[in-house]
Structures are given as C-alpha cells and as structure tokens.
Amino acid sequence: MRESYDHLEELVKERTMQLEMAYKRLKESERDLSEAQKNGSYWKLEMGHYNR
C-alpha cells in the first residue's frame, strides 16, 4: 500500500511540474502577443501618417 501511495505522490509531483512549466510558457506567449499587438498598432499609426 505504501509503495502505491509513494508512486502516486511522485506522479502528482511530476504532473504539477509539467503544469507549472506549461503555465509559464502560456504567460510568456501572452506577453509576446501583447507586445506584437502593441507594435502592430504602432505600425498602423505610423503608416497612417505617411500615407497622408
């Protein structure tokens, strides 16, 4: 019984680590997307000024 519990505990730790890494990558992607959107908006603004 103890071996099963230890194995299950190890699986939970491993999965938790995987989820934490996935969450970190998601937050990095959100930050990158936000920056890209800001840059895109800036580019559109600049192009609007040049096309006048």
Span from first to last CA?
77 Å
Estimate percent helicity: over 70%
- Shape, per Cα inertia axes: rod-shaped
**H/E series, N to C?**
H
The poorly predicted ranges are none
Task: Describe what you observe in this structure.
This protein has 52 residues and is mainly α. Helices cover 94% and strands 0% of the residues. The chain contains 1 helix and no strands. The radius of gyration is 23 Å and the shape is rod-shaped.
Essential attributes:
52 residues; mainly alpha; 1 helix
In short:
With 52 residues, the chain is mainly alpha-helical. The protein is 94% helix and 0% strand. It starts with a helix and ends with a helix.
Topology:
Elements: H1 2-50
